[in-house]
Amino acid sequence: MSEYRPPSAFGMIPPVVKNILIINVICFLAQLNPMMNGWLTHNGAAFYFDSPNFRIWQLFTYAFLHGSSTHLFFNMFAVFVFGPPIENYLGSKRFLTYYMLTAIGAILLQSIITGYQVYSVAGTFFPIHQGIVSAQELPYPPVIGASGAVFGILIAFGMLFPNMLLYLYFLFPIKAKYLVIAYGAFELFYAVQNNPNDNVAHYAHLGGMLFGFILLKVWKIRKPGSYY
């Protein structure tokens, strides 16, 4: 059992993690411009698939937009802390594939849940195209943020380095596998509450974890030191 220490210098960060950090910061700086923010949200945020604003590329572009500096910081901090050992173990190409597929998987699960909620109220998955409600009246705002992919990174860390000691709030040591289980349980609890005042896409977080778990199993990725 050992303690995990994140990279101590930016130059030590592997290339995909480094570029994820840079691209997200650049996109957020662009969002600070009111004119650019409107264009980026309209074209890059993940709209419900019945919305006239929906575009197929939004399934991954949404993961590079953020709603606030706090939103950006915590997501990128998690990528910075947990991403490097996973990229070093999987290799840069596979890690990039993993990151993007968990982002897509996250929004797919969120969209499925949203579709179910829309159907339970409107009796159809396509209330906008059928003229039941307008796009403005649909109570499901577009989704933005890298959190789904971040939760994919978290479950990968927990599966590949389950006994690595992490320090919760920099004070309390906890094994990675238990921290990941706790995060998953937390997200599931809040997801099923279906609180209309909660604007966090909890099912996207769970989707990132689910798709990450499936990918590692399909790829037959074993934790370091494991043998067939």
TrEMBL record:
Occurrences of domain Peptidase S54 rhomboid (ranges): 55-215
Chief subcellular location: membrane
SUPFAM superfamilies from the UniProt entry: Rhomboid-like
Gene3D superfamilies: Rhomboid-like (1.20.1540.10)
One Gene Ontology MF term: serine-type endopeptidase activity
GO biological process, one term: proteolysis
Membrane-topology annotation of the record: Multi-pass membrane protein
GO cellular component: membrane
Compartments, record wording: Membrane
Pfam family, one: Rhomboid
Keywords: Hydrolase, Membrane, Protease, Transmembrane, Transmembrane helix
UniProt entry tagged with the keyword Hydrolase: yes
Transmembrane parts of this sequence: 21-40, 60-83, 95-119, 139-161, 168-190, 202-219
PANTHER family: PEPTIDASE S54 RHOMBOID DOMAIN-CONTAINING PROTEIN (PTHR43066:SF11), RHOMBOID-RELATED PROTEIN (PTHR43066)
Name of the molecule in the record: Rhomboid family intramembrane serine protease
Source species: Solitalea agri
